[in-house]
Amino acid sequence: MIRVRVPATMANVGPGFDCMGIALSLYNYVELEETETGLKVENCGRDAAALPTDETNLVVKSIRAYFKRVSVEPRGLFVRVTNEVPVSRGMGSSAACIVGGIVSANRLAGNLMSQDELLHLAVELEGHPDNVTPALLGGVVVSSRDEEGTDHVRFDVPGELECLMAIPNVSLSTKMAREALPKEVPFADAVYNVGKAALLTGALMQGNYAVVEKALGDRLHQPYRSKLLPSLEYIYEKSREKKMNTLIISGAGPTLAYLLLPGSRNRQDEFVRLLEETPETWELKKLQGDNTGAVFME
Ligand code: HSE
């Protein structure tokens, strides 16, 4: 049996819309075996009952996409998916499914694709690179996709960086969260985000947390998406008023990430109080970075 572990991811990281992501210490597991015939899918762990056990399962779809690409036809398949990453919460569950599917299928087929080819297939299946690249490679990944493909730079998440994730008991589809974005943005907002994203990348690489704290501003997605859920809007507005700069929306939301930066004044209690002022219930998880990415469990 092939077993792969794939990390959750926090995409966007404030200003890096569709181009930055960090792998986190929370995991999905994909097990894959070739059988005589047919398809058997088992979902275990978080949200298991809500996930399909047929060809519509995202892990299965990704496995099929891989086999189609390499022109291999397995006889039958047994797939077991064990999830820790919450579904449709902005923590990269779909990226983890895609990466888990294609990485396990690649091993089953005899490693017909290189890591780079897997990365490109994952980006194609997900449609943007910011979640799948850290899910595959671990660490902080900055990537850019154009007509010619995806280029990326990866570096380790500093060991001392922690994130307090607040996961609400409501989900938000990425499709809806993308539809909430405007077709055009003011030039000044685009300039603002370019500056912040470039600053954030450099500051994270240097471990310069005083600058990281100032580099998390975003005008491209969070102001629009926070309006999708009154509680998100409330906490987002309050956090701006209180200058809690390291409170951001994880991926497309609705999970909130409070980055706990070494050497800065972390106001976790205030964050928790804000959460308690909303009608939702929030599950809190303190996570570190993952620098391994997709890995086989022997
Ligand atoms: N960059 C993506 C978004 C991440 O914010 O829509 C979610 O898939």
Describe the structure in your own words.
There is one protein chain. This protein is an alpha+beta fold and 298 residues long. The chain folds into two domains: 2-156 and 292-296, 2-Layer Sandwich (Ribosomal Protein S5, domain 2), CATH 3.30.230.10; 162-288, Alpha-Beta Plaits. Helices cover 35% and strands 27% of the residues. It contains ten helices and eleven strands. It has helices at residues 58-69, 93-109, 115-126, 132-137, 174-179, 187-206, 209-214, 222-225, 230-241, 268-276, and strands at 2-11, 20-35, 38-45, 76-83, 140-146, 149-155, 162-168, 247-249, 256-260, 282-288, 295-296. The strands form two sheets. Strands 1, 2, 3, 4, 5, 6 and 11 form a seven-stranded mixed β-sheet that branches. Strands 8-9-7-10 form a four-stranded antiparallel β-sheet, with helices on one face. A hairpin with a 2-residue loop joins strand 5 (140-146) and strand 6. Helix 1 crosses helix 2 (93-109) and helix 2 crosses helix 3. It is globular. The termini are close together. Bound molecules: L-homoserine (HSE). The site of L-homoserine (HSE) has 13 residues, from helix 5. L-homoserine binds at residues 11-12, 17-18, 128, 130-131, 174, 177-178, 221, 251-252.
Furnish the topology, listing elements before pairings:
Layout lengths: L1 E10 L8 E16 L2 E8 L12 H12 L6 E8 L9 H17 L5 H12 L5 H6 L2 E7 L2 E7 L6 E7 L5 H6 L7 H20 L2 H6 L7 H4 L4 H12 L5 E3 L6 E5 L7 H9 L5 E7 L6 E2 L2
Parallel strand pairs: 3-4
Antiparallel strand pairs: 1-2, 1-11, 2-4, 2-5, 5-6, 7-9, 7-10, 8-9
The chain binds L-homoserine (HSE).
